[in-house]
């Protein structure tokens, strides 16, 4: 069976071979006589799955030993509250950079737990640029500085994380990297805490990753539920309560898939995350290159802020959207409708979407433009 190409922003496509492996192991995982969904989270079988998943993630992202990996629940929206409950007591204000819909949502949630300072915003230009970090107005003794390093809805990505120390700020940088995690390396020398919902690049909805430097543990507000206290979760190896076991298992399969990837480039043969990043750059270049040259489709995000993962674009007439989406579906190109808050179209080209999918989309874009231009 030829599967369609799925451009969903999340829950998103998973690698086909991962789905096939999960299907083959559904009734009996490695001779245990159980599905992973039926296992005790404290049994030796699942403990081995969780430990391997963490080990592979640490290898892929080169996570330093002094960072804890937490498997949590609730998605990035829950982390918008869990984060300030755990870190707001470290200082005065919580500093937020607003670059789109998700960072705005994060900032508004944090207001419930303390003083928030919006230190930079691109709202005036319609969320189409990234404010220069040199212009950020840091609070004195801030508890942390929060950025959304990839705005899924608006299609903005911080391709280089700011060096806060070089900018005169001693607060830890916190990144919501939900929609680009495992698509590129993370510079841990600049990051105190990273969190991400899994349902873009890692696995199914239900799993949230938190990667936190050890010195940031133990600062939770008294009101923090025990299951959301980073230190308690870390002390119990993410088993304080029943974690999303099947989602962790599937994420582990995706991590193994990432490690197996190979890509031949002009710079040599790449593997693992380096291969994934090179492939993602090629996919984004192919798509944006056509959109820019078409004279038919338009994009609004500044070139240096464009997301490799989420590409919003627009048609010249509102009357064209319905026939565009119907024609795309007929061609096996699914879920290209833009988010309701911004309209238009959006192609999410996460790790599991192959270059062939982008080529098929570009071919359809060319045909549609010729017929309706």
What does this structure look like?
The chain is an alpha/beta fold. Helices cover 33% and strands 16% of the residues. It contains nine helices and 15 strands. Strands 2-10-9-8-5-3-4 form a seven-stranded mixed beta sheet. The chain is globular. The protein starts with a strand and ends with a helix. The mean pLDDT is 97.
Give helix and strand order, one letter per element, not per position: EHHEHEHEEEEEEEHHEEHEHEEH
Based on CA inertia axes, which overall geometry fits?
A: globular
Helix/strand-derived category reads alpha/beta
Largest sheet: 7 strands, mixed
The total count of strands amounts to: 15
* Distance separating the two termini: 34 Å
Provide the helix percentage: 25-40%
| Beta fraction | 15-25%
Outline:
This protein has helices spanning 16-24, 44-61, 75-87, 101-110, 230-235, 245-260, 273-294, 321-330, 355-372; strands spanning 5-6, 67-72, 94-98, 116-121, 145-148, 150-151, 156-157, 173-176, 193-197, 208-213, 262-265, 268-271, 310-313, 333-334, 345-348.
Q: How are the elements arranged and paired?
A:
Blueprint (H helix, E strand, L loop, with lengths): L4 E2 L9 H9 L19 H18 L5 E6 L2 H13 L6 E5 L2 H10 L5 E6 L23 E4 L1 E2 L4 E2 L15 E4 L16 E5 L10 E6 L16 H6 L9 H16 L1 E4 L2 E4 L1 H22 L15 E4 L7 H10 L2 E2 L10 E4 L6 H18 L1
Parallel strand pairs: 1-14, 3-4, 3-5, 5-8, 8-9
Antiparallel strand pairs: 2-10, 6-7, 9-10, 11-12, 13-15
Helix pairs in contact: 1-6, 2-6, 3-4, 7-9
């Amino acid at each position: 069976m030829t599967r369609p190409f799925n451009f969903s922003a999340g829950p998103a496509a998973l690698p086909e071979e991962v789905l096939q492996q999960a299907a083959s192991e559904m009734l009996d995982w490695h001779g245990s006589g159980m599905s992973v969904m039926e296992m005790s989270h404290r049994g030796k079988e699942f403990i081995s799955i969780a430990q391997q998943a963490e080990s592979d993630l640490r290898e892929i992202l080169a996570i330093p030993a002094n960072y804890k990996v937490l498997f949590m629940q609730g998605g990035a929206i829950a982390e918008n509250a869990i984060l300030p409950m755990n870190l707001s007591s470290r200082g005065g204000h919580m500093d937020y950079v607003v670059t789109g819909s998700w960072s705005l949502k994060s900032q508004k949630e944090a207001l419930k737990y303390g003083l928030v300072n919006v230190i930079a915003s691109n709202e005036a230009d319609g969320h189409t640029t990234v404010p220069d970090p040199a212009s950020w107005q840091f609070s004195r003794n801030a508890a942390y500085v929060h950025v959304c390093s990839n705005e899924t809805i608006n299609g903005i990505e911080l391709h280089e994380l700011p060096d806060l120390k070089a900018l005169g700020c001693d607060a830890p940088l916190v990144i919501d990297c939900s929609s680009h995690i495992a698509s590129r390396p993370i510079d841990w020398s600049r990051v105190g805490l990273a969190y991400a919902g899994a349902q873009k690049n890692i696995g199914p909805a239900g799993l949230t990753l938190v990667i936190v430097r050890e010195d940031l543990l133990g600062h939770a507000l008294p009101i923090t539920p025990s299951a959301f206290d980073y230190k308690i979760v870390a002390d119990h190896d993410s088993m304080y309560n029943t974690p999303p076991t099947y989602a962790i298992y599937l994420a582990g399969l995706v991590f193994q898939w990432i490690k197996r990837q190979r890509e031949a480039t002009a710079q040599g043969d790449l593997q693992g995350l380096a291969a994934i990043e090179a492939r993602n750059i090629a996919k984004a270049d192919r798509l944006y290159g056509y959109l820019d040259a078409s004279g038919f489709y338009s994009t609004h995000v500044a070139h240096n802020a464009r997301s490799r993962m989420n590409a919003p674009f627009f048609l010249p007439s509102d009357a064209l959207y319905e026939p565009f989406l119907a024609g795309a579906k007929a061609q096996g190109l699914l879920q290209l409708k833009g988010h309701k808050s911004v309209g238009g179209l959006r192609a999410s080209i996460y790790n599991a979407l192959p270059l062939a999918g982008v080529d098929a989309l570009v071919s359809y874009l060319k045909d549609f433009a010729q017929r309706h231009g």
